[in-house]
Specification:
Structural class: alpha+beta
Shape: globular
Largest sheet: 4 strands, antiparallel
Low-confidence stretches: none
Strand content: 5-15%
Number of domains: 1
Mean pLDDT: 95
Order of helices and strands: HHHHEEEHHHHEHH
């Protein structure tokens, strides 16, 4: 799977300009259609254990390939990847979800919440503080640690405001994001069994997302 996606993206990496893109629009459309089909399959698979994903369609989840070049020195007009974020409310929501990233030599899957607004981050920290035993159980589960390790995030240098500095698990409250990541090789992503493997990967993230979303659902934005 993802053969057309990888083939197109490898070419795009070497030819990231509008002239080339428009003259090879057929390759892009084929790759896009393939990625949409796999995203639709993942929606179905993840919905079997996370009902919040039910009812989504690929366009709710897939990010545009066009880059925002207004505030960067890199004026390449296109991303060198395909990405989809499956969460309650779709890719623009603040809920914890499941992320799929396809990029030659840089593919990965991820889960949790990334760059949450201040009220969401505070709610998550409160949830962790008040339910620390449950949270530790989730993130220390053997299979979870084997695949994801620690959170992939920067930390505050000091304790966040409003929490006692002597809290034993203060390091868990210092994270700015609560995301876990697992890298994937191109070969792994192109195997025939990858859809089943991705389902199992995302299933390992379910309890974390469920915990985070329990906090987030109470936030008014």
């Amino acid at each position: 799977m993802f053969e057309k996606s990888f083939s197109f993206l490898r070419l795009l990496q070497k030819n990231n300009n509008r002239e080339w893109f428009h003259s090879h629009k057929d390759l892009y459309n084929d790759a896009k259609q393939e990625f949409e089909g796999i995203t639709e399959l993942l929606i179905h698979e993840i919905s079997s254990f996370d009902k919040d994903i039910s009812g989504l369609i690929p366009k709710d989840c897939i990010f545009r390939i066009f880059r925002d070049i207004r505030f960067t020195n890199d004026k390449s007009p296109y991303k060198n990847n395909f990405g989809a974020y499956l969460s309650k409310g779709g890719k623009k929501s603040f809920y914890a979800g499941y992320y799929l990233h396809i990029e030659p030599n840089e593919s990965m899957i991820a889960g949790g919440i990334y760059m949450p607004p201040a009220p969401v981050l505070k709610a998550v920290r409160n949830e962790i503080f008040h339910h620390i035993e449950e949270f530790n159980e989730i993130i220390s589960e053997r299979d979870f640690v084997k695949h994801f390790g620690d959170f992939s995030s920067e930390k505050l240098k000091t304790a966040p405001k409003g929490f006692p500095k002597d809290f034993p698990d203060m390091e868990l409250l210092k994270y700015k994001n609560y995301i876990v990541v697992e890298s994937k090789t191109d070969k792994e992503m192109m195997t025939d069994s990858i859809s089943k493997e991705l389902k199992e990967d995302f299933k390992r993230i379910f309890r974390l997302n469920q915990f985070l979303n329990e906090a987030i659902k109470e936030v008014s934005l």
